[in-house]
Design goal:
2 domains; F-box_dom; Leu-rich_rpt_Cys-con_subtyp; 15 helices; single chain; LRR_dom_sf; F-box domain-containing protein; ten-stranded parallel β-sheet; 12 strands; Leucine-rich repeat, LRR (right-handed beta-alpha superhelix); alpha/beta; 369 residues; elongated
């Protein structure tokens, strides 16, 4: 059976064999309407055809003629170069001036290729950029963050995970210009992610909804508390491996970030029952605050993902109390959203599904007898 990609390829081949203009939404091949050469293809049709192709082919197409290059430059808003295993840096320096309308640019790398001159070129020409992925760019320095701060102030999503050379002063500087950030991935940014940087994020990025601070060992209660007070719309926060934080951080999040849906506390061994009870209490207070107001089903879910693996100070009583308050936390097979691996004392904790199943089983047994 021919797959979707195969059908696309066949359709594309037919287009290349007999290019036709579109009239009223339908392709027509009448006298005077057949396009004699590919360079004369209408921009709308060209962009429609190119939407079926991978990014590597689109780049090649931009070199066919000046007309195609101009059309693609104006129409291309999304580009992924993760397929480029060598020479990505030079490719970016060459392409960024041509593709100035980019809004999404994915530059994930298996091995570090990008250097500061490429990011500076992006910042100089791609002024509409909103989503940028620079993960694993080990060669980049603070020069890149300073350039992005000035050239791309409309960034809403930035992934610099694994960029271990960035400093906290450069990250703080970036947040002073990029106030629209909603998603920020700093996983493994051991120098950049500090309490100082988090204070700047809390001060400048009030719209932030998702933040990954995994394995940023310099992060402490001061930074997380500043974040909680400055970013009340936070939905997802990963603090896995942030070994310095204590209950103080979780209490601040529970009190201030009432939309929190996902929280990672893996290996945060200073977290105790006090933090769990504060999260449970926030659920009670949320319900009181929203009583009488119109709520969506999503608002009713509350916390839906919690990773407390290796948090060995926690007891079953506190975690069960939390689980009882948040029906979105699951321990049942296939739906694990409450992750407790490495905590042998918590194996007795059960989600609402398991409790309901056990109650139903007992009722069935009673009826049978």
């Amino acid at each position: 059976m021919v797959g979707i990609e195969g059908l696309k390829s066949k359709a594309l081949e037919l287009c290349f064999e007999k290019p036709m203009v579109f009239n009223g939404g339908e392709a027509r091949k009448m006298e005077g309407e057949v396009i004699p050469e590919w360079k004369d293809i209408p921009t709308e049709l060209l962009l429609r055809i190119l939407s079926l192709l991978d990014d590597q082919t689109v780049i090649k197409a931009s070199g066919v003629c000046s007309g195609w290059r101009e059309a693609i430059s104006l129409g291309l808003t999304h580009l992924c170069l993760s397929w480029c295993k060598n020479n990505m840096n030079n490719l970016i320096v060459s392409l960024a001036p041509k593709f100035s309308k980019l809004q999404i640019l994915i530059l994930r790398q298996d091995k570090p290729q990008l250097e500061d001159d490429a990011i500076e070129t992006i910042a100089n020409f791609c002024l509409d950029l909103q989503d940028l992925d620079l993960s694993k760019s080990f060669k980049l320095t603070d020069r890149s963050l300073y350039a992005l701060a000035h050239g791309c102030p409309d960034l809403t999503k930035l992934n610099i995970s694994g960029c271990s050379a960035f400093s906290d002063s450069a990250l703080a500087y970036l947040t002073g210009f990029c106030h629209k950030l909603k998603s920020l991935n700093l996983c493994g940014c051991v120098k950049a992610a500090s309490d100082r940087a988090l204070q700047a994020i809390g001060r400048n990025c009030s719209q932030l909804q998702s933040l990954n601070l995994g394995w940023c060992e310099k992060v402490g209660d001061l930074g997380v508390t500043s974040l909680a007070y400055g970013c009340p719309d936070l939905r997802a926060l990963d603090l896995c491996g942030c070994v310095l934080i204590t209950d103080e951080s979780v209490i601040a999040l529970a009190n201030r970030c009432r939309h929190l849906r996902s929280l990672g506390l893996y290996y945060c061994q200073n977290i105790t029952d006090k933090a769990m009870y504060s999260l449970a209490q926030s659920r009670v207070e949320n319900k009181h605050e929203k009583r009488g107001t119109r709520r969506s089903s999503h608002d009713d879910e509350g916390l839906m993902n919690l990773n407390i693996s290796q948090c060995t100070a926690l007891t079953p009583l506190a975690v069960q109390a939390l689980c009882d308050m948040f029906p979105g936390l699951h321990t049942c097979p296939g739906r694990h959203s409450l992750i407790i691996s490495g905590c042998l004392s918590l194996t007795s904790v059960r989600c609402v599904c398991a409790v309901h199943a056990r109650t139903a089983l007992r009722a069935a047994d009673t009826e049978a007898h």
